[in-house]
Amino acid sequence: MSEREVLELLRENARYSTADIARMTGLNESEVETTIEELEAAGVVRGYQAVVDWDKLEDERVRAEVELNVTLDRETGYDDIAERLARFPQVKALRLVSGDYDFDMEVEGDSIREVSQFISEKVAPVPEITQTVTHYVMTSYKENGIELGDGEDDERLSFSP
């Protein structure tokens, strides 16, 4: 048994009981409890969240993926910029990435206006940020490994060349 097995099961469904995890791994419940407590204490497990299909709610929730380009100087590094941006509650995820831009940032708000204002008033003015490109999320088909939607089969005919 490894911590990795317990972590994979928690990622699959954080609502599994210790008895469920014990049954699936062959451990006893106290070993599972101890493993989870150690993972939480070490900061490996940082929290538990529900995967929400916002399209199923009547409340509007706007999400955007924002590409950020930055220019670094001798005093400012990627970690400094990330620390500043991550403090905003609108920022749901922030990643340093390879490719055509430096950071990928996920932002949420109650309206397109709110998200746009946040980016233009709080993000773009950061001196090291040289460019922002905002992509509004239209529909999510999968979040955190879980497929979203109504589960109905697509009735279109498949086409293979």
Shape: globular
* Major sheet size, sense and barrel closure: 4 strands, antiparallel
Determine the mean pLDDT.
86
The CATH superfamily label of the largest domain reads Lrp/AsnC effector binding domain/regulation of amino acid metabolism (RAM) domain
**SS element count, helices:** 5
H/E element order: HHHEHEEHEEE
The CATH class of the largest domain is identified as Alpha Beta
- Widest beta sheet: strand line-up: 2-3-1-4
CATH topology description of the largest domain:
Alpha-Beta Plaits
Cα-atom radius of gyration:
20 Å
Estimate percent helicity: 25-40%
CATH architecture of the largest domain: 2-Layer Sandwich
Tally of individual domains: 2
* Measured distance between first and last alpha carbons: 46 Å
Number of strands: 6
> What is the SS-derived class?
alpha+beta
Q: Which regions have little confidence, pLDDT < 50, spanning 5+ residues?
A: none
The oligomeric state of the chains shown is: single chain
SS strand fraction: 15-25%
